[in-house]
């Protein structure tokens, strides 16, 4: 029986399943089981754990496993033939030999059962009459037959595919309606919008459905789609088959498509009847439906017979293909549509392309969603990014990527604000405001309580907030997180002062609330809970680094700045990669320097700057200490391993918490990206060695004579080899006066000096040359 694809609709998948269960009967609808098998690499890890191998030992073995080809893992037996180092490990001892022996015996066994991502079976009678059923841990009814077996006994499989992108589109449309008063129908957008196609042609597709990977973005810039048909074709072409399938001239299907679209190769049709079928794809057979149409037009196939031809070509079964070839040639001969030689040539071309042909209806449905997201990004970039940040807030890597995209598009990200933020990310003029839901420890119920209290009017102070937001859900921990991430900055900029005052203000608020509730003087008397709110504590403001650390603790990200900001110009001198470019570097030609187990190291060498966090210390099999940590820059994070020898040399730097430069070997695969560090150096030290000048922007007349004297004292307290320059800025004046300070005020380009200066003048006033 055929599959029926329901590729997208604007309802949740669980709602669709509920609907069909209600319509056809709960006993006639079930999801479909899938079985996961034990792959070679996983077998090594599982057996190693049982045999008491350490994580480091099994991880070292697993990293030698050949990378999957076109998404498929190599069997362990084949991996041993391909990688000599695996064979050496297997033969190195009885313990290792037993590991591989057991892994080989277990490979291929069923490891777990789960639900098919989209498949549903619907029957006209109770399913228990035809198939055994299983209830999974979520209470879902699931067949105990896989979809192929379910189809073999006559059941029909429907694919209800749930896509989170539909939630994204719905959220963006809502933001546009609420913020701009514009009513949009995502399913009625003009399909010839020039700005959208320019965005696609530029490869500016971070966040655009199906078009985020580096490979497909490169394909977009080469193909430069100019119409919806091109977009449908791109989604069908960007798959292993078309990308790898070689034509007679050595090029690929994709190469031929691009050349013909841009007029670099003539479009040839082997038969006049093919022009109307292949016009949209420039004479290249891209879709399965085109194969079916050719068979109908030239050989008189019925729709059912044409579908059988499509299936036979996709399966590449010689016997079936030989029978279909005879049938096709007989049909062409009977209809007189072409001579024997041409008919054979056409069938050969169909066979070549159809092996990689894609379902056009599927590709077109996906292209519709792709176009919608591209259109929204092109015309409403802030609403688009706010929706994307909200949808992917739970995914750290995606959030880093999206924040970097906002920076690239010059969209400022504002910290959460108790008077402005909602639960998700919102558009605020030309900026995007962080949502309260992103703050750690602040749950949905607490946010509802805050927003409900805010409906009476904006909060005017920390005291006002603690007095009006009275709920066990908004406790000290919640308010503390809000202070640390800057949610009270619009009421009081000194976060240290708010945090130092919090305990007393909370007590005062609780006492006042109790008094109001009882309509009498509180039990603690006027001194503890009287009308006058307690004054805020006198505390020095945090340094920029302290504020950023608190933000990261509360949200998981740096918002108002980044520890690397002051090194932005210098990083290019000391590094050759960022976390955002590591996978691309991993795909480059191997550098080949260094040794690895006695052989040239094929891994590329990288140097990148960042901030260390999530530091974990472990012991090797020999008992030596080594470290793993996360290195974060402005584009994302990467895992770094410092093996014992490297850790011993750089322990103090790794433990310091200061920005660093890490140099080492890059280890990249489909499911892993790591740097094996051999050098870790303080970024400040690397910068200090290269810096010759320190420049400080001084706002006049706001600073005043006393401020200038304070600045002179600070500079004198940090002597060093760098010449110092003051950029005197006058209010309302487009020009500045640059003053070179005398050699007696030469300074050291250290973080301590920068922190001291910026405590007086504000963040970002210091730069280096």
Largest sheet, order of strands side by side? 12-13-14-16-15
How much helix, percentage-wise, in residues?
40-55%
Q: Which structural class do you get from the secondary structure elements? A: alpha+beta
Q: What spatial form do the alpha-carbon principal axes imply?
A: globular
Structural description of this entry:
This protein is α+β, with helices and mostly antiparallel strands and 769 residues long. It is 47% helix and 17% strand. The protein has 33 helices and 20 strands. Strand 10 and strand 11 form a beta hairpin. Helix 2 (40-50) runs antiparallel to helix 3, helix 2 packs across helix 6 (94-106) and helix 8 (164-180) packs across helix 20 (381-391). It is globular and about 100 Å long. The N and C termini lie far apart (71 Å).
Question: Keywords for this structure?
Answer:
single chain; 769 residues; alpha+beta; five-stranded mixed β-barrel; four-stranded mixed sheet; 33 helices; 20 strands
Write a concise synopsis of the structure shown.
The protein contains 33 helices and 20 strands.
Which helices and strands appear, and what pairs or packs with what?
Blueprint: E1 4-6, H1 13-24, E2 29-37, H2 40-50, H3 55-63, H4 76-82, H5 84-90, H6 94-106, E3 110-122, E4 133-135, E5 141-143, H7 147-152, E6 156-160, H8 164-180, H9 194-201, H10 214-223, H11 228-237, H12 240-244, H13 253-261, H14 272-278, H15 288-299, H16 303-315, H17 318-335, H18 340-354, H19 360-379, H20 381-391, H21 396-408, E7 413-414, E8 426-428, E9 431-433, H22 444-454, H23 462-468, H24 476-484, H25 495-518, H26 525-529, H27 544-555, H28 568-574, H29 582-586, E10 595-596, E11 599-600, E12 605-619, E13 625-633, E14 636-642, H30 644-656, E15 660-669, E16 672-682, H31 683-690, E17 693-700, H32 704-716, E18 719-730, E19 736-740, H33 751-761, E20 766-768
Parallel strand pairs: 1-6, 7-9, 14-16, 17-18
Antiparallel strand pairs: 2-3, 3-6, 4-5, 8-9, 10-11, 12-13, 12-15, 13-14, 15-16, 17-20, 18-19
Helix pairs in contact: 2-3, 2-6, 4-5, 8-19, 8-20, 9-19, 11-19, 14-15, 15-16, 17-18, 19-20, 20-21, 23-25, 24-25, 32-33
């Amino acid at each position: 029986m055929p599959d029926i694809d329901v590729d997208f609709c604007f309802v949740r998948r669980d709602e669709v399943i509920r609907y069909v269960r209600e319509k056809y009967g709960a006993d006639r609808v079930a999801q479909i089981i899938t079985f996961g098998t034990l792959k070679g690499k996983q077998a090594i890890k599982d057996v190693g754990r049982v045999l008491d191998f350490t994580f480091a030992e099994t991880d070292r073995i697993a990293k030698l496993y050949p990378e999957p080809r076109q998404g498929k893992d190599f069997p362990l037996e084949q991996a041993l033939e391909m990688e000599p180092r695996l064979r050496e490990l297997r033969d190195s001892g009885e313990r290792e030999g037993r590991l591989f022996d057991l892994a080989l015996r277990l490979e291929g066994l069923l490891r777990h059962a789960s639900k098919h991502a989209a498949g549903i079976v619907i029957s006209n009678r109770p399913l228990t009459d035809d198939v055994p059923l299983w209830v999974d841990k979520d209470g879902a009814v699931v067949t105990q037959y896989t979809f192929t077996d379910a189809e073999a006994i006559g059941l029909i499989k429907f694919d209800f595919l749930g896509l989170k992108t539909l939630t994204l589109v719905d959220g963006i449309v809502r933001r546009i309606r609420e913020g701009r008063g514009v009513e949009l129908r995502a399913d009625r957008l003009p399909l010839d919008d020039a700005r959208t196609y320019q965005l696609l042609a530029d490869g500016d597709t971070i966040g655009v459905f199906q078009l985020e990977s580096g490979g497909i973005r490169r394909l977009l810039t080469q193909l430069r789609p100019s119409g919806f048909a091109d977009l449908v074709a791109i989604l069908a072409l960007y798959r292993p088959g078309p990308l790898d399938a070689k034509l007679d001239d050595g090029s690929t299907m994709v190469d031929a498509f691009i050349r013909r679209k841009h007029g670099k190769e003539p479009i040839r049709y082997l038969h006049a009847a093919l022009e109307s079928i292949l016009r949209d794809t420039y004479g290249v057979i891209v879709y399965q439906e085109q194969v079916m149409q050719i068979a109908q037009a030239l050989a008189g196939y019925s729709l059912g017979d044409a579908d059988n031809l499509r299936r036979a070509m996709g399966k590449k079964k010689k016997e079936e293909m030989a029978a279909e070839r005879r049938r096709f040639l007989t049909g062409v001969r009977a209809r007189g549509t072409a001579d024997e030689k041409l008919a054979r040539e056409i069938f050969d071309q169909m066979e070549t392309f159809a092996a990689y042909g894609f379902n056009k209806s599927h590709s077109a449905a996906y292209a519709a969603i792709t176009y919608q997201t591209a259109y929204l990004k092109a015309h409403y970039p802030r609403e688009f990014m706010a929706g994307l940040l909200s949808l992917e807030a739970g995914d750290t890597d995606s959030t880093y990527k999206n924040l970097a995209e906002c920076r690239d598009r010059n969209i400022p990200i504002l910290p959460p604000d108790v008077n402005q933020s909602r639960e998700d990310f919102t558009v605020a003029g030309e900026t995007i405001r962080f949502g309260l839901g992103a703050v750690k420890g602040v749950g949905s119920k607490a946010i509802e309580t805050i927003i409900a209290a805010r409906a009476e009017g904006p909060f005017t102070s920390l005291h006002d907030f603690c007095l009006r937001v009275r709920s066990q859900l908004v406790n000290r921990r919640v308010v503390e997180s809000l202070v640390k991430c800057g949610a009270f900055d619009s009421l009081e900029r000194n976060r240290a002062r708010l945090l130092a005052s919090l305990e007393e203000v909370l007590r005062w608020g609780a006492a006042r609330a109790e008094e109001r509730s009882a309509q009498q003087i509180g039990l603690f008397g006027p001194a503890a809970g009287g009308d006058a709110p307690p004054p805020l504590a006198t505390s020095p403001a945090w340094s920029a680094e302290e504020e950023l650390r608190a933000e990261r603790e509360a949200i998981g990200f740096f918002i108002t700045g980044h520890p690397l900001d002051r090194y932005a110009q210098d990083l290019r001198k000391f590094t050759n990669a960022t976390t955002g470019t590591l996978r691309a570097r991993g795909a480059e030609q191997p550098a080949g320097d260094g040794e690895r187990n006695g052989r040239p190291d094929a891994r590329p060498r990288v140097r990148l700057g960042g901030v260390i966090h999530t530091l974990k210390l472990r012991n090797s099999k020999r008992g030596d200490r080594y470290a793993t940590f996360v290195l974060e820059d402005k584009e994302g994070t990467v895992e770094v391993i410092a093996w014992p020898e490297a850790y011993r040399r750089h322990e103090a730097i790794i433990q310091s918490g200061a920005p660093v430069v890490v140099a080492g070997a890059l280890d990249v695969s489909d499911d892993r990206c790591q740097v094996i560090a051999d050098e870790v150096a303080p970024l400040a030290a690397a910068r200090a060695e290269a810096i010759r000048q320190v420049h400080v922007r001084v706002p006049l007349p706001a600073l005043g004579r006393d401020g200038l004297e304070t600045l002179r004292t600070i500079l004198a307290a940090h002597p060093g080899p760098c010449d110092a320059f003051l950029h005197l800025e006058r209010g309302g004046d487009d020009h500045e006066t640059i003053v070179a300070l005398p050699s007696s005020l030469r300074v050291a380009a250290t973080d301590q000096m920068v922190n001291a200066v910026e405590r007086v003048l504000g963040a970002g006033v210091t730069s280096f040359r």
